[in-house]
Write the structure tokens for this entry.
Amino acid sequence: MQVTGSSAALFTVVLTISISTFLLSYLIVIPAAIRLRTLYPDAERPFRVPLPDRGYAVLGAVAFAWVLLGSWVAVFPGTLEALFGLPYDFEETWGVSHLQFQALTLGTLAALLVLGVIGYVRGAGVRAGGPGPAEAGATPVITPEGTTS
């Protein structure tokens, strides 16, 4: 598929994809932070949010909701306007067609998902406590103390 449009419009789409992927990572990080705080409340941390666990969970839920909304709007622009009956001219706003925008955005997200799945599958040995693919065939390194690593 050939993408047409001005360079500025395409840069805006690519920047939006970059921001949306950054936001999407927080959809995993925020619940993980809440869960780790409840599972390991006494773990040493360089900083601890001065709230009780329930307050921390509420703060995380509010942040999660805003990140979810921001991610939706970044990946599917114009949907909230349509939901509320507001006018939204996609091509005037973005400088590219809706199809081009979705192809770039969803194509990028699909490629990142495939890379994530590959990384997850290749990391099975590490998660199980065994050597990872790089460690399985790694050459031992002898340190100055005479030990191997």
Remarks:
- The mean pLDDT is 85.
